[in-house]
Amino acid sequence: MQSFARWLMLGAMLWQAGHLWAATEQEERLEDSTRVLQAILDTPDSGIPKDLLERSECVGIIPSVKKFAFGFGGRYGAGYVLCRKNLGKGAWGAPSAFTLGGGSVGFQLGFSATDFVLLFMNHSGVEKLLQDKFTLGADASVAGGPVGRTASAATDVQMTAQILSYSRSKGLFAGLALEGAVLRPSNDDNRGLYGKEVSAKDILIAGTIPPPAAAEPLIRLLSGQGVSPIPSSTPGASSAPAATSSKTGPGSISGVVSDTGGAVIPDAVLTITNSDTNASRWVTANAEGRYTVPGLVAGNYVIKVQAAGLKAVTTTPIPLEAESDQIVDFQLESGQ
């Protein structure tokens, strides 16, 4: 009897550990999705036109879709779709988990991890999401979306497509296409995120499922309110002092991210948090390791820098005066 009780307790502990791991995985993916969207919104001249985002009924974000191909290849990734309530006319609702898979049309070369953002422009495209298998280009028309501050230069094909797709590539290959890619609702990931069985229909169409706390930064970002994750507290960074001023306009923080050998680090992710208000933004270093965060109000800012294979660095609060340009460079050490 005691042996049975021990096995029962062990089973309960393993189940709880599995549930916590699943929840943590989904929370990390939501954070990655928020960073992807923030990075796109931070480049208005080459990102999603604001008017298109405002007209969309749903947004799908699939961060770091893995692709490996020589010739004709395939892809796999997981992410979330969020829809506006009241048939696309209300506030942004809770996220529903989806996977992206399937083959690629067009010649492929090499390996890449690519972030995808999908805009669902009408209710017909949204309803197709609820199918067990939803093929882009077959079940709904899809086109590469226009970029820029407005959609004034969009083609007829783009303006009539049910879904507009955007990508942010971190690798090198040619012929990127979404024709034939398959979206599927992920019941397992929804269970991991919500801790219970919930359907994509209840989340996206009925809107009866409240969003988890981990989704709040992404929902705020879609609503144009910014994001506010919790900063960590590891020292490290070199900065130039900000000049004292009685001005009231916005300032900026910029700099270069490199390793201890002086090599620049492209695609490093920087989280900039106003320690007075807890409002945060994410930016990504460019190919030269440079980053810029414009439009910052005067205050004290904590910056966290992360890059694959390198130790994360978090600054102590850095003062920023109004209308000043603060330079903060980073050197990251190898390791995790």
What is the structure about, briefly put?
With 336 residues, the protein is an alpha+beta fold.
**What number of structural domains do the residues give?**
2
Q: What summary fits the major beta sheet? A: 8 strands, mixed
Mean pLDDT over all positions: 75
- Number of DSSP strands? 17
Q: Which strands sit side by side, in order, in the main sheet?
A: 5-8-3-2-1-4-7-6
Structural class: alpha+beta
Order of helices and strands: HHEEHEEHEEHEEHHHEEEEEEEEE
- Over the alpha carbons, how many angstroms does the gyration radius reach? 22 Å
Q: Count the DSSP helices.
A: 8
Taken from the alpha-carbon principal axes, the silhouette is: globular
Low-pLDDT stretches are 7-22, 68-73, 105-111, 171-177, 227-236, 239-245
Beta-strand portion reads 25-35%
Helical amount: 10-25%
Could you explain the architecture of this structure?
It is a single chain. The protein is of the alpha+beta class and 336 residues long. The chain folds into 2 domains: 23-222, no CATH class; 238-332, Immunoglobulin-like, CATH 2.60.40.1120. The protein is 25% helix and 35% strand. The chain has helices spanning 2-41, 50-55, 85-88, 123-128, 156-160, 187-194, 200-206, 216-222; strands at 58-71, 74-84, 92-103, 108-120, 134-135, 142-144, 163-169, 182-185, 238-239, 251-259, 269-274, 280-284, 290-296, 299-306, 313-314, 318-320, 325-332. An 8-stranded mixed sheet has the order 5-8-3-2-1-4-7-6. Strands 11, 12, 14, 15 and 16 form a 5-stranded antiparallel sheet that branches. The protein has a 4-stranded mixed sheet with strand order 9-17-10-13, with no helix packed on it. α1 (2-41) packs across α6 and α1 packs parallel to α8 (216-222). The chain is globular. The N and C termini lie far apart (45 Å). Mean pLDDT is 75; it is low at 7-22, 68-73, 105-111, 171-177, 227-236 and 239-245.
